Amino acid sequence: AIAQVQIDQNFISQGPSPKFGPLQIVGSGDADNGANGTVAGAIQTILLDPMLGPNTMFIGSTNGGIWSTTDGGSTWTPLTNNQASLSIASLALDTTDPTGKTLIAGVGVTTSGNWGPPLGPGGRPTGLLYSTDGGADWAPLAGATAFADQSVIGVAARGQTILAATFEERDPTLTQANNGNSYGLYISTDSGSSFSLVPTCSPPCAGLPSGPVTALVADPDPAHSKTFYAAVTSPTDPTQSGVYVTHDSGAHWKPFFTGSTTVNG
Fold first, then answer.
1. Per-residue pLDDT tens for 117-152?
2. Which of 46, 47, 56, 151 has a CA between 20 and 30 Å from the CA of residue 107?
3. Is the separation of the CB atoms in 66 and 78 below 8 Å?
């Protein structure tokens, strides 16, 4: 059986914290005493990089860009203040690089700092950022313009293969059919110079069902650099929603589990 138990805990701040700003920038109201100001700095993603050091971490924030620490969180440094967008939805490490210096970030995530629906992005959705020097410098990937109107909520990089999972459409008045770009899973086999949408099909088949890809994970073992997992939400058939796996860098997919699942705890 599942029971709710309250546990007294004390948390210590370990990184950048939300800041309040004037109402005319963005309406807000999702934090205590925040109804008259914007809220920025929400941590969206955390990435540990043990190859750079046991105390090295990166965080991506909804409105504040990418930050890093090399002392376990005592001090933090902003890394992307000069980029076109500070809205970071996802971070990933390319484990095929033994130095741990190859990083990728997905840009564009919905902010809760809004008076009401539709919720807007924390910054411009501009695709992907890429670093090959441990986060000191970041550059946009040119091929990511293929999905620059969508939130990249999951990223994975393994050598020349880069995958990007997109979810939200940027204009809430448009549907997937007339929004220009289609949400789903995008793949590049040329280090990000170009991307294409992974074809979909109706299972049983060797592909993904049509729908938003809401999560993306790469196998962390460099020996399994062609293995990726993607969570897909089918808008038409809930039985097709689930997690799919590929062992050949996205050429073929099969269900890992689909439909509803039971969690025992």
1. 445 566 677 899 999 999 999 999 999 988 887 889
2. 56
3. yes
Neighbours of 169 (CB within 10 A): 20
| pLDDT beyond 50 at 186 | yes
Q: What is the spatial order of strands in the sheet that 150-158 belongs to?
A: 150-158, 161-169, 185-188, 196-197
**pLDDT per position as a tens digit, 192-208:** 999 999 988 887 888 89
What are the residue boundaries of the structural domains of the chain, listed by start? 22-258
For the stretch 72-119, pLDDT in tens is 998 999 999 999 888 899 999 999 999 999 999 999 876 654 444 445
Here the tokens at position 54 are: 């046991």
146 contacts: CB under 8 Å, gap ≥ 6 = 127, 181, 186, 194, 195, 196, 197
Spatial CB neighbours of 194, under 8 Å, sequence gap ≥ 6 = 143, 146, 188
- 77 three-state secondary structure: strand
* Alpha-carbon 136 to chain mean position: 20
Angle at 148 between CA 144 and CA 150, to 5 degrees: 125
Task: Give the CATH superfamily of 22-258.
Answer: YVTN repeat-like/Quinoprotein amine dehydrogenase (2.130.10.10)
* pLDDT, position 32: 45
Cis omega (within 30 of 0) for bond into 140: no
Helices (H) and strands (E) in the chain, counts: 0, 18
